[in-house]
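Page 37, continued from 36.
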């Protein structure tokens, strides 16, 4: 099984290109914190190269930029080619199938509320991911803004902690 789930911050703006056949491809890098600090107590991060194709790549390029928090689901892929100097070159990267907003509402901005035609919306109307599976949710009514007043920064409604508020 080859499945990768990463969450981190984009280290640079997304590089969006098209193949000669017109297929969109986005390349970016994510800084992912390690679980443990280094010897000097400083947090360490790994910088993971990622590539996303077609609508998934377009979604990422449109709504994420350097410093944005992002979660991605995909698979590790290695490739090789002959460089201009004649030496064999190798690259290992994550091929992204799904992308999710993971930052606060302030970080994702108002542009994140627009449906790209490939994402889905949760109960409060906030689009929080894109999956390249082709699932299409209906677009929100023009000018309709979701109401976030009843939700905290994680997107969950506030509960007073009593068991009477639990749905089960």
């Amino acid at each position: 099984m080859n499945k990768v789930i990463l969450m981190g911050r984009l280290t640079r703006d997304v590089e969006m290109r098209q193949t000669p056949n017109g297929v969109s491809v986005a390349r970016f890098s994510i800084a992912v914190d390690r679980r443990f600090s280094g010897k000097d107590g400083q947090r360490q991060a790994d910088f993971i190269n990622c590539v996303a194709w077609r609508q998934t790549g377009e979604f990422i390029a449109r709504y994420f930029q350097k410093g944005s928090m992002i979660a991605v689901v995909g698979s590790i892929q290695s490739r090789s080619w002959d460089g201009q100097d004649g030496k064999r070159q190798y690259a290992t990267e994550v091929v992204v199938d799904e992308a999710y907003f993971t930052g606060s509402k302030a970080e994702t901005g108002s542009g994140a509320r627009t449906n790209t035609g490939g994402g889905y919306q949760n109960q409060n109307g906030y689009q929080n991911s894109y999956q390249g599976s082709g699932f299409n949710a209906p677009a929100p009514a023009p000018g309709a803004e979701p109401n976030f007043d009843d939700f905290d920064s994680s997107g969950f409604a506030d509960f007073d902690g009593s068991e009477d508020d639990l749905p089960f």
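The radius of gyration is 19 Å. Flag for discussion at group meeting. The chain has a mean pLDDT of 75.
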